[in-house]
Amino acid sequence: MTSAPPPGCAGRRVRGRTGRPRSPETDRAILDATRAALVELGWGKLTLGDVAARAGVAKTTLYRRWAGKNELVVDAVAALFDEHLELPDRGSLQADVEGVVLQFAALLERPEAKTALMAVVSESTRDDALRARIRSAIVDRQKTLVLLGRRRAQARGELPFEESPAAAARDADLIFDVIAGAVVHRALVSGERVDAEWTGAFVALLLFGLAGRTAT
Amino acid sequence: MTSAPPPGCAGRRVRGRTGRPRSPETDRAILDATRAALVELGWGKLTLGDVAARAGVAKTTLYRRWAGKNELVVDAVAALFDEHLELPDRGSLQADVEGVVLQFAALLERPEAKTALMAVVSESTRDDALRARIRSAIVDRQKTLVLLGRRRAQARGELPFEESPAAAARDADLIFDVIAGAVVHRALVSGERVDAEWTGAFVALLLFGLAGRTAT
Amino acid sequence: MTSAPPPGCAGRRVRGRTGRPRSPETDRAILDATRAALVELGWGKLTLGDVAARAGVAKTTLYRRWAGKNELVVDAVAALFDEHLELPDRGSLQADVEGVVLQFAALLERPEAKTALMAVVSESTRDDALRARIRSAIVDRQKTLVLLGRRRAQARGELPFEESPAAAARDADLIFDVIAGAVVHRALVSGERVDAEWTGAFVALLLFGLAGRTAT
Amino acid sequence: MTSAPPPGCAGRRVRGRTGRPRSPETDRAILDATRAALVELGWGKLTLGDVAARAGVAKTTLYRRWAGKNELVVDAVAALFDEHLELPDRGSLQADVEGVVLQFAALLERPEAKTALMAVVSESTRDDALRARIRSAIVDRQKTLVLLGRRRAQARGELPFEESPAAAARDADLIFDVIAGAVVHRALVSGERVDAEWTGAFVALLLFGLAGRTAT
DNA sequence: ACATAAACGAGACGGTACGTCTTGTCTTTAT
DNA sequence: ATAAAGACAAGACGTACCGTCTCGTTTATGT
To answer: Which CATH class is domain C74-215?
Structure first.
């Protein structure tokens, strides 16, 4: 999960060849400014006029490329996920899961990710286009980690192969929601740190279950 | 989780006995109007002026009792949680968990809960007072369900007693984050329905773990 | 123009004899507070809540006695005119007029009089009741000075007796408007000081006219 | 006093050449709306939001050009003075003065002038910038009429030439305060009409003085 | 002495306007 | 054609006062 494909900013249509071309540096400057503003102001106080000023860019330019605050922030945050999530092989399913949990937790400690993630999710509950954008820019990218981890565990013999592709997909979705959900809830709703101790306890629960732990 | 203690709206200080007392009907009218406005407009478009108008109340009156949008919405949503979450004894740990998961999912399908919950969580990442308010008004109330469920399961012999109060508290927190997190993530981030099938699979995973399921 | 009749605050009706009587000190405290607030804040920023607070009195008490800002300020300012305008006999018409002009100018240098006078006049252009109140509380009191001065000048032989009472009244009104108008305009509109030099030139003009001055 | 120089609205600074220029029609629309609102509502009830709505303009646009109610109203009223005061040669000093007095009186019968003039004068007692604005926008323009009238009277031999420029200026100021003050006081404070009869008596007094009238 | 009734303080209340801010569009000049 | 600057209409923001109201308390009578 390293080389990001073009951020796919919504307003960008395939253009004719005439006219002054859009500066690609401008894209970067705006996204950087967005992240910086998120850190300082949070979602609620973030304004597009302020982002434009920070980026040294006219508001017009900003609106030419993104439809609004939501779209801009999704793109700005998506880049963070691309840069910071990966799944090196740590030799066992348990170690792999613990690794990705801690990585995800580190990401969620960044103020720009923390604030923005919940905010855009909140907005997406009333905006289908936004939900789709979040799914493709953020959720689906994370989900590949689950698929990769399972494939490795299956190769090691830690997990059985699935009976059908449909069951496999359902199961991956479930595991993804449990892992991502637990980490997000711990970090943002409960407001507690996701440290090694909690991670260990969580992965134990995930692998062996409430009942399984009892038996152990 | 039925009889709600007074909603504890923050602005209400212990006052002297002089002056006209605040009308308690006004409190209710404002909270009802807030929920109605959330359904229609969502968090982003919600306006305190609009809430005041719906409640047939002056903006001043509203600001006299709540410091802002966040505080108001937390109280308005907290009431929903109080009214709609309970844990009737269904005879087994598995049935109890499935019951509460479905109940929680039904709550999260209400548009006012959906939008508002994530929005205030997002804001709480930059506002400690708000986080405390959410914790006491929403999170802690839900957490009692976990404690109650565990006590029952222990009474039935499904779960062992904890070694220490500290360990018990840590474990309850973990279980709570896993259940609530998974349901919220499924419903709001992944945007999929939390139906009986998913619930069954999730509870199986929770009870027996990835490894345990394999063995079964 | 010394012993003021009761300030005649509008709201005071003849009451039954039971019930707690209104405190006369409260009247004074409110009028004093009004003048003090006028000095500090001016007409535009003056608020009745602030006056009440300064007087150590509840807003209700204030509204029980005066209908609003205008009425209150007229009464507060009228007292100033009562206290500060009089016409000692200085031996000649010229000296008498110069004396009253300087006295009036001194009054208009008080910030509370300055601001309040023009403000209530402005309001009175759209409020007949207020105009009547100003006339009886302020204008008529000043006008008696003109009548007194003319009587003295006639006794000295400086001015002839009028042919008819109607002509006498018209002439007194004219002289009053010229004197008061010139002083007010100089002091408040032109914003220049009314000093001995200007007063001398003005009274010379008033007595001898543009043409008469030329001849002299 | 016909062709008005640019109204000189305070907020207008010399700007760079980029950016959308301010619409000059907007200026006119706002000033017209201000006068209309003054007629209907008077100074006290006049609302900048209402003015903006009448002018079909956003409040922001209004505040971009004027600092507040006072400044706006001064400019709106100044235009009236520019349009309605002039001094055609009527052949004699007496006729000239009577003409300008009646003209000024007609102006002061307009409700927008009546209310607004005293109100801004009242505010100007606490605001030096406002006083300066009134002086340059209204007072100084009127004063030129006095200068013009005197020059004509001197040319006709009705008045002598002044000994020094300083004395000339002092004298013009005095005459201006007497004429304007008397008319304003008669019209607004005493609340009586300035008709031909009063005007005749006033101009006679002005030309010949209290003593001079007696001799005649 | 004891009721009656108004005055009084405190402060909630429904309104209205404030002056500022942000949004997304539009219009200009400059590159 | 794109960029920067900034005007613009729209409308929400949170605050301040308005004038009214509802309380509980106090202070004069009139019995």
So the answer is: mainly alpha
